[in-house]
Every structure is written in C-alpha cells, then in structure tokens.
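2024-03-11 09:14:02 DEBUG pipeline.ingest accepted 1 chain
2024-03-11 09:14:02 DEBUG pipeline.ingest length=104
2024-03-11 09:14:03 DEBUG pipeline.predict start
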Amino acid sequence: MPVLTDKNFEKDAAAGIAVVKFYSLWSTDSRALEEPYKQLSDEFRGKAKFIESEINSNPVIAKKFGVASIPSIMIFTNGRPTARIEKLCTKRELRNQLERFIKN
C-alpha cells in the first residue's frame, strides 16, 4: 500500500478519490484497523487510492489536516478533504462513507 509522506501528498492524493489512513505505530487502535482497511482497499481497487501515513514520521501533513485522533481516516476528492473519521471504526462504517464518494 502506498505511503503518504510530507513530500508526496500533492502527487498521490491530488486526483480522484484518495483514502488516507493516519496512524501511529504505538496505537493499538491503528493496528486493529489494519486488516479492515486492507480488505476495503482490495474491494475498491481501481475506484480509489488507499494510502497510509504514519504521523510521527510525517508530522507536517498530519498537522496540515488537523489530525488529532489516531487512527484517523480522511477521504480526499481531487485533493480536497471531503470526509473524516476520527475514531476506530468498523469495516461497515468505513465502507458506508466510501460509498458516498465512489460510484460503482
């Protein structure tokens, strides 16, 4: 899965739908979200880019988008933030959010 860094945000999240998971290595909630996030990335392959960003390694991008909770997931449409989930969510909750932005 692509990794979003402070340097490549514009290139990787600027076009189409990008789903960015902000996480931390020390967060148990972040680890709990790993498998559902991977499954949804497979399910929505070709319809959205799924990207991850570890906040301690990439603090500039996390600060730019006001990431205050870990894990946080942001959905970007053509580089603009259009949705945010700032809690550990279920696969179903995340899928419901994605379906609002992704046309089948």
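2024-03-11 09:14:41 DEBUG pipeline.report Strands lie at 17-23, 49-54, 72-77, 80-85.
2024-03-11 09:14:41 DEBUG pipeline.predict end
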